[in-house]
Amino acid sequence: MPSKRRSTKRPYGQPHPELDVERVRGGLGAQRQRGPRGEDYWVAIPRPSDKTYTCPACGRDVPGTQEHVVAWAADGLFGPDAAGQERRHWHRACWQTFGRTRG
Description:
This protein is of the alpha+beta class. Helices cover 18% and strands 22% of the residues. It has 3 helices and 6 strands, in the order αβββββαβα.
């Protein structure tokens, strides 16, 4: 049976807090890099977590405990907040090679 006590983390009926792009960028030590197709991205190495993500390059799982890359567009079409919410977790090797020609 669920508890009748309400959570104190977020008051009932209140909206979720907005994503703070500056906090995400600064908290993860993000750096601006050129992306797979030549676009500018913010790229960071996240702290380990229990989550599992899907790499957009190879489609395989990226365990949160494995060191990987998080990237999001530096100049999103709908602004920096929307770009930050569209961030993706990549295997390090996939980020370094995806969409780049070998010469």
